[in-house]
Amino acid sequence: MKYSNLETFEKFGFLINLIYKMYSNFLVQYKHPYNISFLWNFGFLSGIFLAIQIVTGLLLTMSYTAHIQFAFHSIYNIMNELNYGWVMRYFHLNIASFFFFFLAVYIHIFKAIYYSSYKQSRSVVWFIGIIIYILMMGTAFLGYVLPWGQMSFWAATVITNFITVIPIFGLDVVQWVWAGFSINNATLTRFFSLHYLLPFLILVFVLLHLTILHIISIKGNNPLGLHTSDDNKITFDPYSYIKDYYYLIAFLIIVIIVIFWFPESLNHPDNYIKANPLSTPPHIVPEWYFLPFYAILRCISNKMYGIIVMFLCIIMFFFLPLMNRNKIKSSLFHFINKQKNWFLIVNLTYLGILGYNSPIFPYVEVGLICTHLHLFYFILLLLVAITLNKMYYNRTLVQNTYNITSPYMIYYGERNE
After folding, report:
1. Burial category of 66 from C-beta neighbours within 10 Å (exposed 0-12, middle 13-18, buried 19 and up)
2. 3-state secondary structure 188-239
3. Other residues' Cβ atoms within 10 Å of the Cβ of residue 251
4. What is the pLDDT of residue 284?
5. pTM of structure
6. CA distances (Å), 343 to each of 110, 298, 404, in order?
C-alpha cells in the first residue's frame, strides 16, 4: 500500500513539475524585446476578459432556462430575484458589449497588422488568432440570442437566413439548424448549448496560440520590426507583469464605473420586449462590434453577393501573411504601409458608423463605397508589396551600394564614400 501511494505521488509530482516548468518558461522567464509599447498589453487584457466571461457565464447558466416561454423571464429572475445576479449579468453583458473584450481584441489585431506581427515565423500564430476571432464572433451572436427579446429573435432570424444562399441545399440546411420551419424552442436550446461550449473551444485555441507564440516564434516582434538578441530582451516577470497589471487595474476601474452607473448604455431598448414573431422592429441593429460587417451586408442589394462580400471581408484577414511580402516589417519605416493601415482602421470605423444608421440615402451608397475600399486595401497591399520589393528592397543591390544594418537606414542611410 505504501508503494502504491509512493507511485501515485511520483505521477502527480511529475505532472506538477511539468505544469510548473511550462508556467515558468511561458509566463515568468520568457524573454521579449524591452522596447515593446503598451499595445502589447492588450493580448493579456483579452485573456483576462475571456476568463471573466467564462466564470460569469458558468454562474449565469445555473439560473438561465433555455426555453422560448421562460428564457425572457429567467433573465428577469436573474436580475431581480437572484442575489447579486444583476452584477454577474452586467459583468457578462458589458465586458462583451461595451468597449472591453472586443475592443481589446480589435486593438490586439490592429497592432499585429500595423507592426506586421503576422509575418515570418509568426504566421501560424496569426492564423490561430483569426480563428479565435471568428469563434468569438459566433459565440457573441449566440449569446445575443439567449435573452429572447425582440432584437435577439430577429437577429437570429436574419443571421440564420444567410444559410439559404447555399445553392440547392440552402433551405434544407437552415431548417435543419432551426429544427423546424422557423425559429423555435429547439433552436434556442441548440444556441444555448453552442454558446456554452464554444468558449472552452476558444480557450483551447488561446492556449495553442500562446504555446506556438512562445515555442515556435523565437524572434520576438517589437515596434522597430528588428530581430533583437537576448542581451536586448527582458523577462516577463516582473517587467511585463507590472505594465499588464497597471492597464488591467485601469480597465477594471472603467468596467466598474460602467456596470454601476451606465450598465444599459449599449443595450438596445427593444431587447426588453419579449420576442414576438408577428412584430418586426423598425430598425434591427446588431452589437457595435458587428456594425462594420452589417453595413457591408446591408449596402448590397443582392442577398447572395452581399453575404459573400461580407464573409470575404472577414476571411481576407486570414491571408495577410501570404499577401504582404515586404521585407520591412514595421510600418514605422514604411510610409505607404503606415498610411494604408490607418486607412483600414478609419474605413472600418466609418463602416461601423454607417451600420448604426438607418438604411437610407446616403448611408447605403457611402457604405457601398467603403466596402469596395476595404477590399481595395488587400489588393493594394499585394500590389505595393510586389512593386516596392522590386524597386527598393533588392538586398543585393542595396547592400553593395550602402552599408545597411537596419530598415531605418534604407530610407535615411548615406552612401559610404
Report:
1. buried
2. HHHHHHHHHHHHHHHHHHHHHHHHHHHHCCCCCCCCCCCCCCHHHEEEHHHH
3. 20
4. 82
5. 0.86
6. 12, 22, 30
